[in-house]
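Service request form, structural biology core

Requester: graduate student, group of Dr. S.
Request type: structure prediction, single chain
Budget code: on file
Notes: please return the result as structure tokens.

Sequence provided:
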Amino acid sequence: QLVGMLIVVLVKKSAASSFSNVQTCTAAAGILGVMGNKGAVATRLTFTPPLSDSSDTTTTSTPGPTVLTFVSSHLAAFDEMVDKRNSDFHDVSKKMKFTSGFMDAAGTSPVHVSVYDSDVLFWMASELRLFDYAANLDLT
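Core staff response, request fulfilled:
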């Protein structure tokens, strides 16, 4: 468990029916990689816009579903901890997995997807140094 880490995604009641497939995951990166003093929490959900009114001629089509992922992380602080912070960032990035809703080829276990398997990824970091990582991400 992570200590003091929380992520909340709020949606207007009138828009709630446009959201589905809500999932959460956590990844610890503290002492020995298991203690809850450092790590990340994530929420993943699918937004599907409501169907447009067929009498509305201003829109030509309704976009399909969009997978949104929100991550909040708390990693090592201070400039002298940059190597540890980098290591923890990559560690929690690998650990955070969601189920895709599909089974593997053998049909025995669910297929997992990473936080990067999203249409839109919001990553909030307490250490405000995320720009160091974003410039080096290979998203291909």
